[in-house]
Amino acid sequence: MTFDVFTHLLESALRTTIVATAAALLLTLFRVRDISTRLAVWSAVLCAAFLMPFAGHWLPPLAAPYWQTSQAELSVTWITEPGVGITETQPTPSFPWRTVIVFLYAAVTAAFLARWLFGWVLAARFTNRTQSVYPQLAVEVAATVGLRRVPELRQSTRSRVPVTLGWFRPVVLLPAQWSSWNQRTLRAVLLHEFAHIAHKDWLVQRLGALHAAVFWFSPASWCISRQLTRLAEHASDDKVLADLGDPPFYAELLHTFLRARARASHRIAWDGVAMARGASTVSRIERILSPDLILSQGVHMKSFATQLAILIPVFLLAACARLLSEAPPPPPPPAPPATQAAAAPPDPPTPPRAAAIARPYAPPAPQARPENRDSYAIFYGDKTSISGSWYDVDEAKVLRKSISGDFIWFRRNGKNYVIRDAAIIQQARSFFRPQEELGHEQAELGKMQAALGKQQAELGKLQSDVAVQVPDMSADLQRVMQKIREASKSQKATQSDLGNLQADLAKLQARLGALEGQAGGEHARLGGRQAALGRQQATLGVEQAKLGERQREAAEKATAQMKELIESAIKDGRAQAISPLI
Description:
The structure is a single chain. With 582 residues, the chain is of the alpha+beta class. The protein has a domain at 3-78 and 98-120 and 195-320. It has helices at residues 3-29, 35-58, 97-128, 137-145, 183-198, 201-214, 219-244, 247-263, 278-288, 301-320, 390-402, 422-465, 474-489, 495-572; strands spanning 76-77, 86-88, 131-133, 152-156, 163-165, 171-175, 273-274, 358-359, 375-380, 383-387, 407-412, 415-419, 576-578. A five-stranded mixed beta sheet has the order 3-4-6-5-7, with helices on both faces. A five-stranded antiparallel beta sheet has the order 10-9-11-12-13, sandwiched between helices. A three-stranded antiparallel beta sheet has the order 1-2-8, with no helix packed on it. The longest helix is centred in the C-terminal third of the chain and has 78 residues, at 495-572.
């Protein structure tokens, strides 16, 4: 899995969020209260969510704001001159956050899918260990619900609540104590579970869980899954209430199943549609006992068609929108043809670089070939100038060996062409002569900066080596130390004696201070020279910036002229199409 796949999934999730939000707003604005109609609308939203990752490929794109996610191709200037290597600019390595994101997504998705599959397998194994039962009431209830055949009924000692499993051959699991139920309780249970089978709720909820497992990072996916589960239970409850007409009795029955489930030590029905599950059952009981309850009468086709008539255009617009898709990269800045690569200054303190560092060519790791990128190269004498990617460098090497003489090679709309007309080649070279001249000026500035840097380095060495001739003061120090020892031994040292000691120490300090001042003066003199050199470096840096701006303008002008020249050569037939050599 690549980051592009994850980006496509993220874009699909955003589109699905748009459709789901539109569905929720429509149901609210049109005040659709019928449960079956709401369930049908959210089922349609789930279908749209599954189609969304593929609809973007089927439908034409729609212009929309996007985030650029593609990486710009590497631009190089290849100069084949004796003693000069290839000038290259490579991106600084950064933290592989894309790889980390893809790894985390794959790990979490694998966990959700494993849980989804494990629940399915566990439910199937659990069903195989149960016993088949044949209540006579099942035939009548199946006909009431509208089923053509009676679903398979099984009992289990490990099941505490009725559960529906499967779609093609559905199975209803009943608790072992079902035989002690009265006819009314059994009818209510069968009506509820058979209604799930008639509505294909197991299949819809499994698909909703699968979508949530893949798009677990999208709140809309979980919202769709919860809506489908909640509305399916309400629709089945309405089926029971429409037949029995006793809300308190049915609410008490659900409460009984809820308590039985809470006391159970095993929760097996991961892959089933249980009749009572957690907090959702409490909200169902409150709804059943509500005096404002309106039972569903089936899908209201007019209302459902109205919702679809609005949601389908929303789906199409969302599917066509390119919210995160990659946009074609802008044309690369031209690589100015140069006859000589300027050398960088040798270790100046802070000057800007005079030019790119020339170093031997090292081919990068293989990548996808940029087929649609327009590139060109000018071959004249033993010099080659290229504006393009590393693949263009490789192709230029092959061309230089296979074609003799001066020529221009370029790629336009994925096709390769060669121009051998001497007049066109000279005209193309003239486009880039201003850049060559500016390159020479930058080289001269670089030499001047290198010379200043050398002078600064020499001054720095002088500053570190500044030394002052220190006279021999050992005799004076010993005389002062002797007086201090005598004073410490004598208990009768006078104020005059202490004053004399302080005077001697002050003389020594004065002599040392004079020496420090002498050294500081030398440092100040050298520092002044350093400051002057720094000002000269700053002036050269400003000149370099101005030359860089002039080079940018010259490059833009040369690129436009080169484009017109190539278009003219194609129209005049002076550009010969060739097949790719690599």
